[in-house]
Amino acid sequence: MQVTLKVYRYNPEKDKKPHYDTFTLEADPTERVLDLMERIKGLQDGTLTFRRSCAHGVCGSDAMRINGVNRLACKTLVQDVGKKITVEPILGLPVIKDMIVDMEPFFENYRSVMPYFVNNDPPPNGERLQSPEERERFDDTTKCILCAACTTSCPSFWANGKYVGPSAIVNAHRFIFDSRDQAAKERLEILAGQFGVYRCRTIFNCTLACPREIQITKAIGEIKEAIATGNLD
Amino acid sequence: MQARRIPKILSFESIMWLFMRISGLAMYVFALTGLTIALIMGARTQMDMGTLLRWTFFPIGTHVTSSDILVLEQWINPFWTIMQYLTIVFATMHGTNGLRMVLEDYMDAGWGVHVLRGLLLIIWLFMLLVAFNLIQTTGAV
Predict the structure, then answer these.
(1) Does some domain include residue B124?
(2) Is B106 in contact with A160 (Cβ distance < 8 A)?
(3) Disulfide-capable partner of B64 in A79, A117, A233, B75 (CB 3.0 to 4.6 Å)?
């Protein structure tokens, strides 16, 4: 089938403002949008710029807006988006070139919620043990790959980049509800602040955008509940 | 499995989040109470629709004296005065906090936000002052 790919282009060294280029190419319905972009870059326009690494939905490098929806280009099949495809960078972060955005504001928010394991007890001889039930409590939020599809689909983040955003909250959730961790209070105090969970308006854009199908809005709700009740179970 | 607990966290944002939900529900309760009791007290035959709705959202004496109701005692008494105060406090705080949230959604932290926040506080206090004055001067028969 013949597919038309309309691609957002911006080269800060040449362009005063962004524009769109349209490419036409033959594609199988089961090919991925990333395959088409690779082919354009290899055969039609070598200047097309985008991030990709594993190309199998694990590294989270190629999050982009495909037909208006945040998706991973490597997990989006042509048959799922049709013959006319529009590809744009994710919203809310400064565009560096074409599909590449500056992820630093995103990672700054991520770092602000202490997304690492804290336990000041002396290390045991073996592992820090945990029951299957305790592990299950935060299983969903361990799946985050930091692709930023959720945060950049959130109108609260578009309006104010200081809001930590769904992704940072998901990664805080992963440690807050970990029975071996000891810094839940510090994280919840950060998230109870001006740019924490209360900027969420529960519109579920993040949940719909997540390529890992994490129940993000539910996780945000659980954090609000933990702040209000102090219960971490 | 040992229960994991931390002390409850009370921040301004968490308190206001809870307040917005409680005040939102409370305004439904106040409005429905005002509407229902007004209908029981004879508003169906002695008030037009506009007056009834004004009473529903702010049950104050002036809304009754401008209608055909002749016996005012049951409409103007301490119960309705308390309802007026509660309605005004909840409604203006709910609205003002909503504006604060919109403001902080779109503005970065800085002196500009502090100035506008202060302005909102002054507007809110002014609205309360005017409303309280209105309640005081028209709250008695």
Answers:
(1) yes
(2) yes
(3) B75
